[in-house]
């Protein structure tokens, strides 16, 4: 049954996510029901079994020659048939009610939105970090919260700006909120704490704040990415 009459294309950008992608796709198919028209995995030249695992799980797999989330998600959106695009990172545990939550949001005349999040960690400092995702400030946003948006609005805004090899989600949300209301759903998705496992909390916060400042002062994305990668150990990142 699809009581909200919503049609959703779930789009997942990946790079080397073989250990996670199968279970995520199966979860989406199980809980999405007939509302989910397709799960589109857009792979950025993985060197592991991400593509075969995604195919085995039942997803449509596209290969992107450009290894950035903006380019990968735009490619997925161009192929999507759903009236709603739902962008999901591969290391997220979704709400099983995501179809109803998105349908309710549309019924309330929200054209886009996201969830709050929690980390898959018992560390108190990460619980404090996650608490702030309930607030509306742009610094409290990010792709880890997942993002739904109607395809018509996404196309009107010309999708993600591929100039941004980092911070593409913040740029998109800022442009979107100039014209449309944005809903923060009062439920949590679960985010991997793997970035924090190989880096101290302080190190990650410094990296995040540094890149935010560079973004708002309109520094070139490649420079932002270089600085971020210098501060954060690469083996904890999927991109």
Structure description:
An 8-stranded mixed β-sheet has the order 3-2-1-4-7-6-8-5, with helices on both faces. It is 41% helix and 20% strand. Residues 235-239 have low confidence and may be disordered. With 239 residues, it is α/β, with parallel strands linked by helices. The protein has a single domain (8-195), classed as Spore Coat Polysaccharide Biosynthesis Protein SpsA, Chain A (Alpha-Beta Complex), CATH 3.90.550.10.
Rounded radius of gyration (Å): 17 Å
CATH topology: Spore Coat Polysaccharide Biosynthesis Protein SpsA, Chain A
The CATH class, by name, is Alpha Beta
Which class best fits the helix and strand makeup?
alpha/beta
- Assembly type of the chains comes to single chain
Q: Which homologous superfamily in CATH is the superfamily?
A: Spore Coat Polysaccharide Biosynthesis Protein SpsA, Chain A
Distance between the termini: 36 Å
Arithmetic mean of pLDDT: 92
Biggest β-sheet description: 8 strands, mixed
Strand content: 15-25%
Number of strands: 8
CA-based shape: globular
Per CATH, the architecture is Alpha-Beta Complex
Provide the domain count.
1
- Order of strands, main sheet, comes to 3-2-1-4-7-6-8-5
Number of helices: 10
> What pattern of helices and strands is seen along the backbone?
EHEHEHEEHEHEHHEHHH
């Amino acid at each position: 049954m699809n009581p909200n009459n919503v049609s959703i294309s779930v789009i997942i950008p990946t790079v080397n996510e073989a250990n996670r992608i199968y279970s995520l796709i199966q979860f989406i198919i199980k809980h999405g029901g007939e509302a989910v028209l397709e799960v589109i995995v857009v792979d950025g030249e993985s060197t592991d079994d991400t593509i075969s695992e995604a195919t085995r799980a039942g997803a449509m797999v596209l290969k992107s020659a450009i290894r950035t989330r903006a380019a990968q998600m735009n490619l997925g959106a161009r192929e999507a048939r759903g009236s709603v695009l739902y962008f999901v990172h591969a290391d997220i545990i979704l709400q099983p009610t995501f179809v109803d939550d998105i349908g309710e949001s549309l019924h309330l005349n929200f054209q886009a939105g996201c969830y709050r999040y929690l980390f898959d960690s018992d560390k108190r400092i990460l619980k404090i970090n996650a608490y702030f995702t309930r607030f509306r400030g742009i610094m409290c946003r990010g792709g880890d919260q997942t993002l739904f948006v109607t395809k018509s609005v996404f196309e009107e805004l010309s999708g993600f700006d591929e100039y941004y090899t980092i911070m593409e989600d913040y740029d998109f949300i800022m442009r979107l909120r100039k014209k449309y209301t944005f809903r923060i759903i009062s439920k949590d998705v679960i985010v991997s704490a793997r970035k924090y496992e190989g880096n101290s909390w302080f190190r990650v916060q410094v990296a995040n704040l540094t890149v935010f400042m560079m973004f708002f002062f309109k520094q070139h994305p490649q420079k932002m990415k270089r600085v971020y990668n210098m501060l954060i150990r690469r083996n904890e990142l999927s991109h």
